[in-house]
Write a structure and sequence with these properties.
The chain is an alpha/beta fold. Helix content is about 40%, strand content about 20%. The longest helix has 21 residues. The structure holds ligand AR6.
């Protein structure tokens, strides 16, 4: 793998790649979930299918609900990842833009806190809330990258945080990373 956009923060690293999160061989992948932790569409549907929907749903039911801005953890079952961290981003139109920002940041921070609690060293995130939930990706990308940088500056963990981006969201995050790398 050459020239993936990346940013080193002390001992920790943020990477961006384009692709399907279910194939990621990391300790934990993050699901863009709903508050009920029910199988949905988008990346959530793909994760449930790849993990084994019945097993993952049973595990989700045991830890549901999950309010917007929070996260829950389950096993990964048939996935290469050991854990799935289910994070609920905001439905963009249900909040003021600044409240939606706060809730999106909170979903990432809650996921990283759970990851640290479970000894996760590598984690892959999708672009939470920017699909079915309608959060504009141009607004999310700089906010998310800045949140990851801030978290890793403080905690230095997980050592690898990878954003796995679907199709045309990749260049948006790449531009945001380049901008933040140039100014930090
Ligand atoms: N790998 C990585 N990213 C993906 C994949 C994949 N396999 N598939 C889609 N994406 P969304 P949300 C991207 O809609 O907006 C579900 O029904 C997608 O292109 O999956 O948080 C849940 O159950 C977009 O950039 O999540 C909730 O009800 C990003 O993942 C609701 O949707 C997130 O899009 C959550 O909506």
């Amino acid at each position: 793998m050459t020239d993936l956009p990346a940013l080193q923060i002390g001992q920790a690293r943020i990477e961006l790649c384009e692709g399907d999160i279910v194939t990621q061989s990391v300790d934990a992948i993050v699901n863009a979930a709903n508050e009920q932790l029910r199988q949905g569409g988008g990346v959530c549907g793909a994760i449930f299918r790849a993990a084994g929907a019945a097993d993952l749903q049973r595990a989700c039911d045991a830890v549901a609900p999950c309010p917007t801005g929070e996260a829950r953890i389950t096993p990964g079952f048939a996935l290469p990842a050991r854990y799935v961290i289910h994070a609920v981003g905001p439905i963009f139109d249900s909040y003021s833009p600044t409240e939606a920002d706060r809730l999106l940041v909170s979903a990432y921070r809650a996921s990283l806190a759970l990851a640290r609690q479970y000894g996760v060293r590598s984690i892959a995130f999708p672009s939470i809330a920017t699909g079915i939930y309608g959060f504009p990706v141009e607004r999310a990308a700089p906010l998310v990258i800045r949140t990851l940088v801030d978290e890793l500056r403080v905690h230095q963990s997980p050592a690898l945080v990878r954003m796995v981006l679907w199709r045309d969201t990749f260049p948006v995050y790449r531009a945001a990373l380049a901008q933040i790398a140039a100014t930090s």
